[in-house]
Amino acid sequence: MTSTKSTNSAINLSDPQYYFNRELSWLEFNRRVLAEALDERTLLLERLKFMAIFSSNLDEFFMVRIAALKQQVEAGVSKLSADGRTAQQQLEAITKILTPMFQEQHQHFEKVLKKSLTKSGIYLLNYVDLNQEQRTYINSYFEDYIFPVLTPLAVDPSHPFPYISNLSLNLAVVLKDPQIDEELFARVKVPKVLPRFVALPEELRQKYRGNPGVWTGVPIEQIVTHNLEYLFSGMNILESYAFRVTRNADISVEEDEADDLLLAIEKELQKRRIGGSAVRLEVEASIPTELRSMIIQELSLEENDVYDVDGLLSLGDLMSFLSLPLSNLKDKPWNSVLPHRLSWLKEENDSMSEGNNFFNVIRNGDLLVHHPYHSFSNTVLRFVTEAAHDPNVLAIKMTLYRTSGDSPIIKALIAAAQNDKQVVALVELKARFDEENNILWAKKLEQSGVHVVYGVTGLKTHTKITLVVRQEKEKIRRYVHIGTGNYNPKTAKLYTDLSLLSCREDLGADLTDLFNFLTGYSRQKSYRKLLVAPVNLRERMVEMINREAENCRQGKTGRIVAKMNSLVDQPVIKALYEASQAGVEIDLIIRGICCLRPGLPKISDKIRVISIIGRFLEHSRIFYFHNDGQEEIYIGSADWMTRNLSRRVEAVTPIESPEIFRDLQEILGVMLADNRKAWELQSDGSFRQRKPQKGEEVHSTHDIFMEMAQQSAGMASN
Fold this sequence. Notes:
alpha/beta; 3 domains; 10-stranded mixed sheet; 29 strands
């Protein structure tokens, strides 16, 4: 034992060779998303969906992560990443990895998926492939709907190169004035207010097996291209090429200097709409070198920032095809069911009574809800709505990080305030790309009498918590909701998350203290049960990891299973390495970024990492520790990332109900046994997808959980 420890202590666990690069690890996550689009086992329209998600993910990656790296290069920042790279080296590595991946996506769409769409009666045509009757219709559509909203912008000595807005699709047009025999350049922005793919009426659709296909249409930019003479009357149109620009869209607010955080965020949002500096150019591969170079120069970009596309640009717009009525080409719709303890609740408008309501259910024991397998609307939303209208409820306190545009949660809080309850909503204005939505709701809540606060200076409030204070006979009782996901009914149908509903005194007291920290001047340093970031969450997680290691050193069993979105935090990774060296068996289920290198001899050979990519977005966080047989399990809002542990307010709760404990163990067990949607992280950073062996039963996580939910609820659906 002593010699092993001394050998291990000679290994420098801060060495960059033991860490994957954060950005490159994210690219590998997006590669797994792309793999779903390339996988022939995935239904056709679902493959288009994953194509679109891959593209949308890249847009945000460039707007935020690439933009930040470029700013570091410009500012001369010398700090190295955990794997020992400068910002410039990271940008170069990203380009080297992403370019072939980007090309693979577009080639697969053009050469494989478009043919598969055609075989299914979906004809995404090029304008040049239209017959005369179809062209007549499309040209009329252009005159009636497209032409009135277009604005051609000339570029010449009196008209400087126009500002190209973020994520806009544009045409670079080269034309000639016959009077002066001079080539000119103009830019035409393709309008976002119209459909990206313009459909033909049924009578003009392409034939599929002798019958009109399901859908026939053409990209809007091609319609504009072939009608440019309407925009440039009297000119000779020589050529035109589509291009798209991505800009820095991150928001930076110095809170200490902002007297009014709401106003400061609004001003920054105005800047984002315009967009920051350009960070990427996507352009048709056939564009002439001279024209390409001119656009690059005008956007202050470099060659490495350019991605040539042989085919359709902006594949994120493919998501629109999911609306086609082709059930055989899409996943079967999933209707969330009710947890078995709520089997009495059949309809959203069921009448409530003191003996038949959510509060009664929670008093009888903690309730775990597993979304989207269990209904969000008939559990979490119902809990908040009942509290808003219950005459015995005195106060509701809630954190809002992201919610939907037509949020029923907001409506419930407004109703509660109108019912003279004390209502507090902590609205996180800095929730990236949801700032505008949150500002809107913050103003509506304030106007309705809700106490709105914006959190703690310097910290994002990411925790998902609700506290309901209720008068019951001679006693005040506190009910809590602690979740892993946002209070958003729309994403609750797409993301896997967990909700704990409880009226345990210790959790109620902890949430009271936490809200006092968030809304007042409390500097709470200890909590009864909750692990709270940035107060004690990292410290306690590292302590529990170290406890497993110490148990192994003493000849006992050590076991850790942790599920999260991302693992980046270096102190936590070091603790996991040390636990592996001590003999702790560690399984990590990480959807996205993982900077830990598993399978390294004498470093991490006891650590296994899988990622599950499938129908639903894995978003729940679960942490299991064997603790020498005194097992502990936690759920909450925090990943093991430095930002979550140091720069965000997060809450993680222990699970003390034996039944819920077993349910969470089962959830982890199902995911670890997945042989259809699970990918295993290799020590070199690549991923290997698991596949069922010959004769082996297929274990697909999301399918299993849907089946389990239906069985446990007796097929009761909401």
